[in-house]
């Protein structure tokens, strides 16, 4: 795992290093299936025996993907290097989101706690400081924030927020990110979707006819009027 962890810190400016990073990401995401009810038999036995232990190490290592890479001489321009990194970040976000649904019931608490912590830290790596037009945060920041807020609301619904400390951390970090328009827009969309849903539950489906994509994600929420 030390080799894979180091691979996730490599540059995206050369084809060889990019393929190394890409391979490490896919190996780790494959190993995360050990947390599901039907794990792949090709996963190493230690991971199958104690998947929650290795999950902590894997998800901590994957945070390196979100770190900004400095300027470097390589085989590709900076724009392509950023695009490569962004694609790997999006792959990880999709896999983590899927894991919150597919993880075995006995690992759900661990998965949700580590996932929310991972997303808070990863978003902060990208959004804490002002960005230039070619920064990674400009390319993938909105996707990271959307994933964080989506899973946050689902964690609230499923009573998977581990402690009030998580709420305080989210509030503190959002204040640090408030100079990013994408953060304000994403949070506003989630709140608008929930507000529309509450109004429809109270006054009927014809009330507040606003078409919002997020409504589909929260439509199953039980709301007592």
Describe this structure in words.
The structure is a single chain. It is globular and about 60 Å long. The chain starts with a helix and ends in a 7-residue tail after the last helix. The model has no long low-confidence stretch (mean pLDDT 87). It has helices at residues 2-7, 15-31, 45-49, 51-62, 78-102, 108-127, 136-157, 164-176, 181-203, 214-218. It has one domain (2-179). It is mainly α and 225 residues long. The chain is built from ten helices and no strands.
Task: Give me the secondary-structure topology.
Elements: H1 2-7, H2 15-31, H3 45-49, H4 51-62, H5 78-102, H6 108-127, H7 136-157, H8 164-176, H9 181-203, H10 214-218
Helix pairs in contact: 2-5, 4-6, 5-7, 6-7, 6-8, 7-9
Protein name: Ral GTPase-activating protein subunit alpha/beta N-terminal domain-containing protein
InterPro entries: RALGAPB, RGPA/RALGAPB_N
GO molecular function: GTPase activator activity
């Amino acid at each position: 795992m030390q080799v894979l962890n180091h691979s996730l810190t490599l540059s995206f400016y050369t084809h060889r290093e990019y393929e190394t990073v890409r391979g490490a990401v896919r190996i780790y995401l494959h190993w995360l299936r050990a947390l599901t009810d039907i794990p792949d038999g090709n996963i190493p036995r230690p991971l199958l025996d104690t998947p929650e232990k290795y999950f902590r190490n894997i998800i901590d290592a994957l945070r390196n993907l979100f770190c900004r890479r400095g300027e470097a001489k390589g085989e590709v321009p900076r724009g392509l290097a950023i695009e490569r990194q962004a694609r790997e970040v999006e792959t990880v976000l999709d896999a983590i989101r899927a894991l919150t649904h597919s993880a075995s019931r006995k690992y759900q608490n661990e998965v949700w706690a580590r996932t929310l912590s991972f997303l808070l830290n990863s978003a902060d790596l990208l959004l804490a400081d002002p960005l230039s037009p070619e920064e990674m945060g400009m390319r993938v920041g909105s996707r990271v924030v959307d994933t964080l807020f989506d899973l946050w609301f689902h964690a609230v619904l499923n009573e998977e927020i581990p402690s009030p400390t998580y709420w305080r951390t989210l509030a503190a970090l959002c204040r640090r990110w408030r100079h990013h328009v994408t953060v304000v827009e994403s949070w506003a969309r989630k709140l608008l979707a929930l507000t529309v849903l509450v109004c429809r539950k109270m006054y009927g489906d014809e009330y507040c006819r606003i078409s919002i994509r997020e409504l589909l994600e929260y439509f199953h929420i039980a709301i007592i009027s």
